[in-house]
Amino acid sequence: MRWGLGGLLRAFFAAPALMFRLAPLEHGHYARSWRRLAALERWLDLAVRPDPAEFPEDADLLEAEMDNLPELRARVERARRELSAALPPMESSQLVVQSSTLGPRAGLGLFAGEDLAQGELVAHYGGDLHSLRSSLKLQDTQYVMRLGCANGSRDEIANACLYVDAGPHLGIKARFINDCRNPRGYNLTLVCCPDQHYAKLLAARDICQGEELFFDYGEKYWEDRAQHMGTDELFECVVLTDDEILNRKQETT
């Protein structure tokens, strides 16, 4: 994905990345921060007050007879920032961030630092957690991914439908994976895990050390991007032809 810090970032990200040792919700501080954010959003959206015994830091709001909506909205956003700060570090197999083979307009890309077997877990895509409503308020959405509905819910509008924004988290290497816009070039498969607050990226085939990693962003992503860039310019800078894909495979084998 596009990023403009160049050599400084490439040097910083040349070291191996790390994968989740535990899923975010298995970290106590993150799990509690998530429960609090969910409770505050439920209060704001549905007027269902949380249990004051569970979240004593919100006792001042809960003691009031009338809901203080401006303060409640501010409290929700503070709770979201606290949840972001509580996101546990991600761990992964060796991955290298460097200039994308798609060309300068694509910015940086993510490359395999070692051979990867088909089906192997390559990376996690996580980040700041959002509902549909809060995701629509973001100014920069190019790193926002829809995970889907958690806990078996089918309600796309309510807070059960989760989105993650990897934009603010430079340590999440999956944010640098590009879309080559050619199904033959995709070497990763995306598996969304809303109940775990991340998506998994699995090797779709055996991947050789040095290959750039690609997965399908989905048509919705490109439709949104086309609103900000000319369509011809957009596709010219990201599409790999079949011959280019074959040449890249030969170079890394």
TrEMBL record:
GO terms for molecular function: histone H4K20 methyltransferase activity. Residues 1-19 form the signal peptide. One of its GO terms (biological process) is regulation of transcription by RNA polymerase II. InterPro entries: KMT5A, SET_dom, SET_dom_sf. It comes from the Eukaryota. SUPFAM superfamilies: SET domain. This is SET domain-containing protein. It comes from Effrenium voratum.
